[in-house]
Design goal:
This protein has 3 helices and no strands. The chain is mainly alpha-helical.
Length: 71
């Protein structure tokens, strides 16, 4: 097991090293890891997530009733 843990750490360490040294990393980081934009858009994303949960709960109730009717 220690060999598996060590090889996993080496693999992901090498992967992180290569990804952060790749050409275009700075541009990628600016687009996808912009904390200001994250903080600005978080309330909108949270509201959309809650709508998604509500739709799921309503659909689940309809599916359960339909399944009981078919059974």
């Amino acid at each position: 097991m220690p060999i598996a843990v060590a090889s996993t750490l080496v693999f992901f360490g090498a992967l992180a090293f290569l990804v952060t040294r790749a050409p275009g990393w700075d541009r990628f980081k600016a687009y996808f890891f912009d904390w200001g934009l994250y903080r600005e858009s978080l309330p909108e994303i949270a509201d959309a997530f809650l709508i998604n949960v509500r739709i799921f709960l309503i659909a689940e109730a309809i599916i359960l009733v339909t399944a009981l009717g078919l059974a």
